[in-house]
Structures are given as structure tokens and as C-alpha cells.
Automatic annotation (TrEMBL):
This is Plastid lipid-associated protein/fibrillin conserved domain-containing protein. The keyword Plastid applies. One of its GO terms (cellular component) is plastid. It is found in: Plastid. The keyword Transit peptide applies. The lineage of its organism: Eukaryota, Viridiplantae, Streptophyta, Embryophyta, Tracheophyta. PANTHER family: PLASTID-LIPID-ASSOCIATED PROTEIN 4, CHLOROPLASTIC-RELATED. Keywords: Plastid, Transit peptide. It comes from Cinchona calisaya.
Amino acid sequence: MATKLIQPPKSAPNFLHPIPSGTIKIMRVHKALSATHSRKKNHTKFCEYPSGLGTIFSSKASEKNFGVEVEDVKKTIQQIKESLYDALQGINRGIFGVPSEKKAEIARLLELLESQNPSPEPTMNIEKMAGTWKLVYSTITILGSRRTKLGLRDFINLGDFFQNIDVVEGKAVNVIEFSARGLNLFKGQLRIEATFKIASKSTVDIRYQNSTITPEQLMNLFEKNYDLLLSIFNPEGWLNITYVDDNFRIGRDDKGNIFVLERS
């Protein structure tokens, strides 16, 4: 969903006083350890702004990177998707919370899909993201007092989430559907418009433009807590597209949220 390195110069070798061979061995071991430490440090920079993510996700899936188990490597993309859809059953896209074990299972399957991403440079083929998408899972949650204030516990039902992407205009429109009980079950929607521009081979910058709620009766219900509603669904920031194929997409934003969508 959317909403918008320097080292000091090395001294010349001392040819008159050669370095003892034992010292050379120690230096080589030290350099190897330093290189290993550097690689591990860089590998953990998952949430930083982010062109390096494509490289991380394309690393060997046989290693336990991002929770990927050895036996998972043998699964095809279709098998992973089937397992993921099974895991998503009955959790209402994760909006009202997910048990920790279930959340971990979903995270593992998403990481496995990302490790087999057929489009490691998605913004270079931005047309793949054009069209309408439907949210099937997100780590954004509406819990506790926020759910009560918005009436989502007893009075208002949360419907489908759609995202329409126009790659020519660089626009994304998020539509969140609602229905209200007690008012003849009338339906309405929150519509959030944003623009986006390519920031890297896998990342887009998103800027919020405007939002509307229709019909007027629904706006009256949300008016008091409209800022709260926007704070949940506002897409402003950057989005890293970690997986995309013809009908499935995964994105991770700068706030640590995950979005999984299927083509509508």
C-alpha cells in the first residue's frame, strides 16, 4: 500500500629491514578476520535506505539468511505461495494482530519468496507494477484504543484494500473500504492519493497528496479521529520492492512495515 569509505595512505615498505615471517602471518590473519567482520556488519543493514537489499536477497538461499531453511530451497515459487496462502487463512490480513508463531511462519515464507525474486531490479521494469492490486497481508495493525476510537471493534467493518498504480503519471491511489452497521450497512471508502518516483533499482520515494472519505455519512463518523486514520494508512516515505512477478508483490517501507499484494 502505498500512501509517498577512506583509509590513510600506506607507508612505503622498509626493504632494509624485512618484516619477520611470523609477523606477516599474524597480519594476514588479522586482515581476514577484519574482512569477515566487515561482511557480517554490512549484511545486517536490512532497514537502512536501501539499494543493497537486492544483493542481500539474492545471496545463497541455502544459508539461513532471513530465516530461510535448507529444505525450503527445494520449494518452487508456486509451492511457497500455496504455503503462504494457507498461512494467511483466517487472520484478516493481519490488521487486528497475528499470533507470534503464525507471524514468524509468514515472515519465513515471505523471506523465502524474496530470496527467489524473479525481478531483482523491479523499478527498471516499473510497468510490472502497473494496474490494480489487492492487499492480502500487512504488518500494520490497528489494536487497542486505536481500534476502539475508529469504531472498528463494534460499529464499523473494515473491507478490502486496493491499490491502483499508474506508472506513466507516477501516481498511486490507495482505497480502503468500510461498511457501517446500523445504518443499513452502507458502504464507503477512504481514498488516499500519492505520487512516487524511482529512487534506486528497487526503491521508490512516495509523497502523500490528498485524501477523501465518501459518502458524507462515513466522513461524519471518522471526522473526530481522521488524523488517527491517516496516520495508520498514510504511505509517505520510501518503499523497497523486494519481490514482484506477474501477480504477486512484496514491499517493505521505511517504518518497518511489510505489504503483500496480489493482482486484482
